[in-house]
Specification:
Chain lengths: ~850, ~350
């Protein structure tokens, strides 16, 4: 690739739909006294043209002759081929089966071609199809040029002007290669398909035995035959001589073209045979020695030699390549290269109006006369000043692009700005009880509600819904997740339309009723709103709030019920209970009995009663001289809600007062696991009982259906047999069935209560484990996930087996004795209701034990799984 | 680049395929008589001069027209006669990034221009196929449009007819008065051109398409009354004189040539033949042509729209002096004082 370009002096496209090859171009003087060269072009389609390049734009007068010769033109040569006069330049045209020589006659005003003579290739046997030709003063005849035609099968036919002299077969020729005549040695050099250069002396060829299948000269059609006897005479002189090569040299490459010139050695009188191969340039001496070899870094297409005016050698060389370039060599050195507009297949140097112009022809007929440009080729740089800039346009585009850039640079996906914001306003004081008549609850739900002063205990929470986007939303569906201890009329409703923008938020009243049969487990309510944005994208937002404590409990004068208790130690001075539970104290309405003792003892009463209609209470006692709190109750599950509330409030209080190093812990030597196990057993036995009752119910129902069937048969029968007290049996069975169904119902209710109790106790145990072993939040989360406080019994899986599996899993993985958790080789077992709970209790004990010994559930070891025992023995 | 063309009158110069025009009046983009739209491709970017701007590319039988969608005054008209080569290469487009583009190398008024067009429709080869096919059809039909001397157009004393050509008349015994003695020959009058050839030398002939004729007159000469055909100055401005043998026939032939000239110079047979592969007749009926307001803004500034398209940075060819370099032995562009080819080469070669 060169920096420089060749500049076009004159150019035209000759022919349409025609093809050209290396031999299709000749440049030379067609008249001996001419000072300007002519270009002769013969296409493979058989049209011969003579042009006179004139510089500048092509004009119609630049074409001198255009003639359709009717046969493909395989090659052209200019030379002294015409016998009549030495000053006439003949144009030798090679057709596949004919060699014709024309002259250009310009005398008649308009130039025209006239045929001097022609030879038709006719053979005695077989055909002679021409491939290429060469010319020169064969045999040292200085005044005339002869022509040697090589056939496609490696025979050569020599014509001395209008006479055929001989035809010989070359040795070892499979596919003919380029052939040239070396005047200095009077020999021909050709390239063979064996990748060799071979030289044949003219005299040897002429004197060898005639090829019997050689062409018989069809006679010169247009001119009288001057002498037809010369081949015969020569043959008789050198009889029985065989064709032999003078020399042969292997190049190892397919030869594209051969030229003869003084190129390699400065000042030498000897000529070189220059052969260009597919990738190398060879210089071979006239005696067959390789003098030069040069690797080419391009694919050569055409070659020509021209006079070297510097005089150190006679010739310089142009090689063109298939990447639109030409390269100029002086000896082995590249002295120039230039970019062309196409890839020429033929190249010549000639003098027109200027000396040393390069004529190129490409395979589609683009004929150019070029000279070397010295300005470096300018890459097609766009001149920005050329167009007037529309600044408004540019500005707008810039803004748009900046927006795109900004949007793409924030890696997180942008949360759409249009969303629903929800906020709940929870009243701080109890409201008047709602009238019973206002409610359209179902009876069984109504029964559950806590009654107060002939009404229902109720709490109205205001839910504010605001939409930040413009426009309005339709069909926003709101769902509530309410703990079991609270009841609402509907847990899901839909808002038909919600206005956006700056409109006042929509207010929805949600009325909660306290459940008189469920011990409070949690008081957290979560609300979800789901909607479709303007673009049809489904989105959701949520909010959480806590129901106030007075919704679940109320204060009563202090009582003493120390059946179950736990103690919390803190590292801070005691906080008056009246301060911690100021809202409750306020709600109690200043009852003196409560008021007096409220600093150190508070008793809470739930709405719920136990099986014996005794209200459930929980009491908090504060040690007067240390930050030590005791929570006690006669009913174990009742400890949870109040105890949890105490923990939460303590934490909140010290966070608000800046006690960042606040700590509390459970300081008893043992966890109350036995009580926990009792609770599990109760729950488990209820499950067993439920299963048994269900089984009985199933049997009974089966029996009932059988009796029914028999009775039906009897009633259908025309001649019915007596009933034989079957009706009594049926009535009995029916009663029993009803009784069993009631049992199942009651057991289910009992199981519900026990499940809730178990849930409360599990939560309590969890928090005690956390406080006792000082678990961090992550470990607590893991533990809570395994020892789940969510007790959800169903037909398939119960809490016991699920928890047992989770405990086993913990013990085999993070709590494994020898850190063997990595394998994770814990077989997933099918969960089945166990026969008893001893295994579960054992596993929970071991877990608690290992935690007590300092085992870590999560964190520390980076990624769980491989937890190891620390501390240990 | 004259803004006004007396298009339509016989003898007017047909510039559409011979010139490149930049940002010309939309009136000049309308097809002239005999010219017709072959393909119209939307969403094509002029990657070189108006990178980033969408436009439509219209291929007629004479030229390639590109007009911006946004401003119809931003346009290009590239005559097929100026096209040197067409290649498909990779280009960088603002609208599509790296993509294949149609490179059109042209030469007009001794300057080389390069045009790059990119189709913004993904994987649509239509841009390439249409332009290439029409250019080929144009290049292989030059005889319809170009004056030709000494061509091989006569075989066995008969005119070799072009595909769309019909011979209307053959006038024997016609003398060409170009040389002093005159040449006896024969006239062929067809729907495309007037051809004369010498009876003795078939190679001595001239083929003049009507669109290259400037005028047809009867004039007195030293040989008597003669039919004089004057060709367009852009193709040489030749004056061809003919004498017809029975002098009465002169007026008949003159009238015949005159009337054919009036018809076919206005509405020439351009010879660019094509067949649409997938014909969509409904599209033509549905298509609403782009309507442009007929406001001509007189540009007082020098029109430099073409600057962006220079293929060689605006260095015209043929303006430089050519000298013979005695070092290399070839003709070269003359160098400034003190520089030689070899030191230029060693600098560049390093």
């Amino acid at each position: 690739m060169s920096l420089f370009r060749a500049k076009t002096w004159w150019s035209t496209r000759v022919g349409t739909d025609e093809e050209f090859d290396t031999a299709s171009l000749q440049v030379g003087f067609l008249e001996t006294n001419a000072d300007k060269a002519n270009v002769v072009i013969g296409s493979l389609q058989g049209i011969l043209r003579v042009l006179a390049p004139s510089g500048g734009d092509y004009t119609v007068e630049d074409l001198l002759v255009e003639q359709d010769l009717g046969e493909p033109i395989l090659g052209l040569l200019l030379g002294r081929f015409v016998p009549a006069g030495e000053d006439l330049v003949g144009i030798a045209v090679l057709h596949p089966r004919k060699l014709a020589v024309y002259t250009l006659d310009a005398s008649a005003g308009t130039p025209s071609l006239s045929l001097a003579y022609s030879h038709t290739f006719q053979t005695n046997s077989g055909s002679f199809t021409a491939c290429n030709m060469t010319s020169g003063p064969f045999g040292g005849d200085p005044s005339r040029d002869h022509i040697l035609v090589q056939s496609m099968d490696g025979r050569v036919a020599c014509y001395e002007q209008d006479a055929h002299s001989f035809t010989r077969r070359l040795l070892n020729c499979l596919v003919p290669g380029p052939i040239v005549y070396v005047a200095r040695t009077d020999s021909f050099v050709t390239a063979t398909s064996t990748l060799c250069l071979e030289s044949y002396r003219y005299q040897v060829l002429a004197g060898a035995q005639d090829d019997p299948s050689g062409p018989v000269d069809g006679g010169a059609a247009d001119v009288p035959v001057a002498s037809a006897s010369s081949p015969g005479r020569r043959a008789s002189v050198t009889q029985r001589k065989m064709v032999a090569t003078d020399w042969s040299v292997c190049l190892g490459e397919q030869v594209i073209d051969i030229k003869i010139g003084k190129f390699t050695t400065p000042g030498a009188t000897q000529v070189d045979v220059l052969a260009v191969g597919a990738s190398c340039l060879f210089g071979v001496s006239e005696s067959g020695d390789i003098k030069m070899q040069k690797k080419l870094d391009f694919d050569p297409a055409a070659m020509t030699l021209f006079d070297n005016p510097r005089g150190d050698t006679a010739h310089n060389m142009i090689l063109t390549s298939f990447d639109d370039s030409m390269y100029i060599f002086r000896r082995q050195q590249m002295v120039w290269s230039a970019k062309l507009t196409s890839s020429p297949v033929a190249v010549f140097v000639a003098d027109y109006e200027h000396r040393g112009m390069v004529t190129t022809l490409d395979d589609s007929g683009l004929l150019s006369v070029v000279y070397l440009g010295t300005d470096p080729a300018v890459s097609g740089a766009i001149v920005p000043e050329a167009k007037e800039i529309d600044y408004d346009d540019v500005d707008e585009e810039h803004r748009k692009l900046l927006g795109i850039i900004r949007a793409s640079q924030s890696d997180a996906r942008m949360e759409p700005r249009d969303k629903i914001i929800m906020r709940a306003q929870v009243p701080r004081v109890p409201e008047a009880p709602g009238a019973l008549e206002d409610l359209d609850f179902h009876d069984h739900v109504l029964q559950k509600c806590v009654r107060q002063d002939n009404g229902m205990l109720q709490l109205t929470v205001k839910l504010f819904l605001a939409y930040t986007g413009s426009g309005s939303l339709s069909d926003v569906s709101v769902t509530l997740d309410v703990p079991e201890c609270a009841l609402v009329k509907e847990k899901a409703f839909s808002v038909s339309s919600l206005k956006g923008g700056t409109a006042t938020p929509m207010i929805i009243d949600i009325v909660f009723y306290a459940n008189a049969f469920v011990l409070p487990n949690s008081n957290e309510v979560s609300v979800q709103a789901m909607f479709l944005t303007g673009s049809g994208e489904p989105r959701a937002s949520s909010c959480k709030f806590e129901l106030p404590m007075f919704f679940s409990t109320r204060l009563i004068p202090p009582i003493k019920e120390p059946a179950f208790k736990f103690k919390l130690d803190t590292n801070k001075p005691p906080v008056m209970l009246a301060t911690l539970f100021d809202d409750m104290v306020y709600v109690s309405g200043g009852e003196p009995e409560i008021e007096n003792s409220s600093n150190y003892v508070l008793s809470f009463r739930y709405w719920v009663e136990d099986e014996t209609q005794v209200p459930l209470n929980a009491t908090i006692l504060l040690s007067k001289n240390a930050g030590r709190y005791r929570v006690q109750s006669n009913y174990l599950p009742a400890l949870w809600f109040v105890g949890n509330e105490l923990c939460k409030r303590l934490k909140k209080y010290f966070e608000a007062t800046g006690g960042s190093d606040f700590d509390m812990w459970y300081d008893e030597p043992h966890l109350p696991l036995q009580d926990f196990y009792n609770c599990i057993d109760e729950h488990f036995s209820a499950r067993v009982r439920l299963n048994e009752t269900k089984s009985l119910l199933n049997d009974c129902a089966q029996q009932f259906r059988t009796i029914e069937k028999r009775l039906l048969v009897r009633f259908k029968d025309r001649n019915a047999v007596p009933l034989q007290q079957l009706d009594v049996v049926m009535a009995e069975t029916y009663h029993r069935l009803m009784g069993l169904a009631d049992d199942v119902g009651n057991t289910q209710i009992l199981l519900g209560t026990l499940s809730n109790n178990l849930s409360c106790v599990t939560s309590l145990v969890l928090i005690l484990i956390k406080l006792k072993f000082k678990l961090d939040e992550e470990s607590f989360r893991v533990l809570k996930a395994h020892l789940s406080p969510v007790v959800n019994d169903n037909e398939k899986v119960g809490w016991e087996e699920a928890t047992d599996a989770a405990m086993t899993y913990l013990l085999r993985t993070v709590l494994a004795k020898k850190g063997g958790g990595e394998g994770g080789a814990v077989a997933a077992l099918e969960l089945q209701m166990p026969a008893d709970t001893t295994k579960l209790k054992k596993h929970i004990s071991i877990v608690a034990d290992r935690l007590g010994k300092g085992a870590v559930l999560a964190g520390g070891e980076g990624g769980g799984g491989g937890g190891e025992e620390k501390g240990g023995e | 680049m004259s803004p006004q063309d007396p298009a339509g009158s016989p003898g007017a110069y047909i510039w559409q395929d011979r010139e490149i025009r930049f940002d010309c009046h939309p009136r000049n983009l309308v097809a002239r008589p005999g010219e017709y739209v072959i393909d119209s491709i939307n969403s094509v970017e002029d990657t070189k001069g108006n990178n980033g701007e969408r436009g439509s590319l219209i291929v007629t039988n004479l030229r390639i027209i590109w007009a911006s969608h946004k401003k119809s005054h931003t346009n290009l008209s590239i005559g097929f006669n100026t096209v040197l080569s067409i290649t498909i290469r990779k280009a960088k487009s603002k609208l599509r990034g790296p993509t294949s583009a149609l490179y059109i190398m042209t030469k007009f008024a001794s300057s080389r221009f390069e045009f790059i067009f990119t189709s913004l429709v993904k994987s649509s080869p239509r841009l390439f196929t249409s332009v290439q096919a029409v250019l080929r059809a144009y290049e292989t039909s030059k005889l319809y449009r170009d004056l030709k001397l000494r061509g091989s157009i006569i075989r066995d004393m008969q005119l070799v007819l072009l595909p769309l050509e019909q011979v209307y008349n053959r006038v024997p015994d016609t003398w060409n008065l170009s040389s002093d003695q005159g040449n006896l020959g024969c006239f062929f009058i067809t729907n495309v051109r007037v051809v004369w050839h010498a009876n003795l030398a078939q190679n001595f002939n001239v083929s003049v398409p009507y669109m290259q004729i400037k005028s047809v007159k009867v004039k007195e000469s030293k040989f008597g009354r003669a039919l004089v055909i004057e060709t367009q100055p852009k193709c040489g401005g030749y004056i061809l004189g003919f004498r017809l043998h029975p002098p009465e026939q002169l007026d008949v032939v003159h009238k015949e040539i005159m009337s054919l000239f009036n018809i076919f110079a206005q509405n020439p047979v351009f010879g660019v033949d094509f067949q649409e592969e997938a014909e969509q007749p409904s599209l033509d009926q549905l298509k609403v042509a782009r309507v442009d307001d007929d406001v001509e803004i007189v540009d007082t500034d020098a029109n430099d729209a073409f600057a962006a398209y220079y293929a060689d940075g605006g260095q015209g060819e043929g303006e430089t002096e050519i000298t013979f370099d005695t070092d290399i032995g070839l003709a070269t562009e003359s160098l400034p004082e003190g520089y030689t080819m070899s030191n230029l080469w060693t600098v560049a070669g390093e």
